[in-house]
Specification:
The protein contains 9 helices and 8 strands. The chain has one domain: Aldolase class I (TIM Barrel, Alpha-Beta Barrel), CATH 3.20.20.70. It has 249 residues and is of the alpha/beta class.
């Protein structure tokens, strides 16, 4: 019996992929983003153990809503790729039921090691869409923000392009961290090199998860940082989406 560890489930998500989504938040994450709104998903040992069957049994009752809205299942986290075998088994069962499958990932576990690619390629057979969170294009800033360099994450984006797996790019816009025009243009230029980007989303920084940091006793480094202005959000949207305009042209 295949099992994994999850944090929670959202029955009717509307922002994590097309249509209404059944969102499963996986436990465990290798990144330590300063603006993370789910720090309670970081530790792999937390959360609850659950079987693939338990997830599918619950999921089946939502199929009429998926069919009506063009929705499906989204796995988020945490970092779903840390439990890639568990995730693959979930998606296998979903495809038997005709359910659209989406992964929300920051790509942290990716590597070109043959052992990992074998597992990833198997997963991708059952994956319809990937929401790829690119926190920051500059490697040093990325390490400052997340605790990890981004070379393998950008390589993951290239690999998905090679495999022609549809992706939506997500970029969290944080004043003073990930909202620099020069970096937005660099990210735009990188996205132009990919042939599989279907949508680009700019996610404004918010403080709704700060209470979780306080509850967990983790120092929150962004106290005093306000959400970006509408002008800065529109600026980022304009710059990044020009990558898609170039492709369409």
């Amino acid at each position: 019996m295949v099992t994994g560890r999850i944090h929670s489930v959202e029955s009717f998500g509307a922002v994590d992929g097309p249509g209404l989504r059944y969102v499963v938040f996986f436990q465990g994450c290798p990144l330590r983003c300063q603006f993370c709104h789910n720090p309670d998903t970081w530790k792999m040992s937390d959360g609850k153990e659950i079987t693939v069957k338990e997830i599918i049994d619950e999921l089946e009752s939502y199929i009429p809503f998926f069919e009506a809205s063009g929705g499906g299942i989204t796995v988020s986290g945490g970092e779903p790729l840390l439990q890639i075998e568990f995730l693959t088994e979930i998606f296998k069962e979903c495809k038997k039921l005709g359910i659209h499958t989406t992964i929300d990932t920051a790509g942290g576990p990716f590597s070109r090691r043959p052992q990992f690619l074998e597992k990833l390629d198997e997963l991708l057979k059952y994956t319809d869409l990937i929401l790829l969170d690119i926190k920051e294009i500059d490697p040093e800033r990325h390490k400052f923000i997340t605790g990890m360099y981004n070379d393998h994450i950008l390589d993951f984006a290239k690999y998905l392009s090679e495999k022609d797996i549809p992706i939506w790019i997500r970029h969290v816009l944080v004043p003073g961290l990930s909202d620099y025009d020069e970096d937005l243009y660099r990210l735009r230029d990188f996205l132009k090199t990919l042939n599989n980007v279907k949508k680009i989303e700019v996610l404004p920084y918010h403080t709704m998860g700060v209470y979780k940091w306080e509850t967990l006793g983790i120092p929150y480094k962004l106290h005093g940082v306000e959400p970006p202005s509408q002008e800065r959000v529109e600026n980022a949207v304009r710059i990044l989406n020009s990558a898609l305009e170039a492709v369409e042209a």
